[in-house]
Design a protein that fits this description.
With 284 residues, the chain is of the alpha+beta class. It is built from ten helices and ten strands. The chain has two domains: 6-129 and 241-260, Aminopeptidase (3-Layer(aba) Sandwich), CATH 3.40.630; 145-233, no CATH class.
Length: 284
C-alpha cells in the first residue's frame, strides 16, 4: 500500500467531503460538478467513492460508485498516468436483475466519456468477460492482437458446431453469414470482432453476433439450444478478452457514439427503483 493512502467519500446527500487540493491535482472540474455529471440520469440514492493513492503526487485514483442500499448496480474505474497522459481502466461494471433494461450501463458510459474528454484520457483498458465480451465490442473496444488470435480459434469452433447442429427453426446458417464470419476470422485485424458481434441473423433465439461470443451456459442460452451436445463437442469454452478503447481512433469513437445514442434524448431521471428481478450481470 502506498504511503498516504487517502479515501475521499462523497456524502449521501450528493456533495463531497475530503481534500480539494488532491482532487484538483487530478481534475480541473469541481467535485460537485463531477458528481452531478457522473450521476446524471441515474436513480436517486447513488453513492460515489473516490480513493486516491498519494505519496507526494497523485499516482492514481479509483472511482467506484453503486446504488445505495440495494447494490443493484456497481461500477469501478481506475485512472493512472502513462507519461503525461491519463489511462482509464474499467475494472467492474455490473447491473443486476431488476435494474437491467433501463440503460444504466449506457448512461454511466455516456457520463464517463464526457469526464474522460475533460481529463484528456488517451485510452481505456479493460478485461471483458460475461456479457461484456459482446457489449464492449459493440461499444467500440478492441481486443489486443494476441487476444484476437485466441478469440478467432474459439469463435471458429463455435461456428463449426452451429454448422453441424443447425437451429431446427431457422435452418442452416445462410452462406453469406458463414462467409462473413470466415472472412473476419481470417483477418488479423482485431477490429474484425466488430463485424462478428454486429451480425443480426437469428440462430437459436439470439442474433448470431451474440451467440458466437456470449457464454454458452443455461444463463444465457435459449432453452432450445443443444447445450449438452455443445459440451460434448467441446464448444462451450468461455470467451473472454483483454482490450482497449483508443480515444483518438475515429472508428472507436463512432461505435461508442452509436452505443450511447441508444439512450432516449428525453429519458427522465429514474426516481423509483425497479423491483428486484433475476438476471445475469451486465459485465465485469
Amino acid at each position: 500500500m502506498n504511503k498516504g493512502l487517502l479515501e475521499v467519500k462523497f456524502s449521501s446527500c450528493g456533495y463531497p467531503s475530503g481534500t480539494p487540493e488532491l482532487w484538483r491535482s487530478f481534475s480541473d472540474q469541481s467535485q460537485e460538478s463531477f458528481y452531478q455529471g457522473l450521476t446524471r440520469g441515474l436513480p436517486k440514492g447513488t453513492k460515489v467513492f473516490l480513493v486516491l493513492h498519494n505519496d507526494g503526487s497523485p499516482e492514481g485514483m479509483r472511482i467506484s460508485f453503486s446504488e445505495s442500499d440495494k447494490n443493484n448496480f456497481c461500477f469501478s474505474r481506475y485512472f493512472y498516468q502513462q507519461g503525461e497522459n491519463w489511462v482509464a481502466q474499467h475494472s467492474t461494471a455490473r447491473v443486476n436483475g431488476g435494474m437491467q433494461g433501463h440503460n444504466i450501463s449506457r448512461i454511466v458510459q455516456r457520463n464517463l466519456m464526457e469526464f474522460y474528454g475533460r481529463l484528456k484520457v488517451k485510452k481505456i483498458e479493460l478485461k471483458a468477460s460475461e456479457v461484456g465480451v459482446y457489449a464492449w465490442a459493440r461499444a467500440g473496444f478492441v481486443p489486443y492482437g494476441y487476444e484476437w488470435g485466441q478469440l478467432r480459434g474459439r469463435i471458429a469452433g463455435r461456428m463449426r458446431f452451429l454448422e453441424a447442429y443447425p437451429d431446427p427453426k431457422e435452418g442452416a446458417l445462410p452462406p453469406e453469414c458463414v462467409r462473413t464470419v470466415n472472412d473476419a476470422l481470417h483477418d488479423g485485424n482485431p477490429k474484425n470482432l466488430w463485424r462478428i458481434v454486429d451480425m443480426k441473423q437469428k440462430c437459436y433465439g439470439l442474433p448470431l453476433g451474440k451467440l458466437l461470443i456470449l457464454p454458452w451456459t443455461k444463463q444465457y442460452m435459449h432453452r432450445d439450444f443443444p447445450l449438452l451436445d455443445a459440451k460434448r463437442y467441446g464448444a462451450t469454452e468461455q470467451v473472454f478478452w483483454d482490450g482497449k478503447f483508443d480515444m483518438a481512433d475515429k472508428d472507436c469513437i463512432a461505435r461508442m457514439k452509436a452505443y450511447i445514442d441508444v439512450i432516449p434524448k428525453d429519458q427522465p431521471e429514474m426516481k423509483a427503483r425497479p423491483k428486484k428481478g433475476k438476471g445475469p450481470v451486465f459485465s465485469k
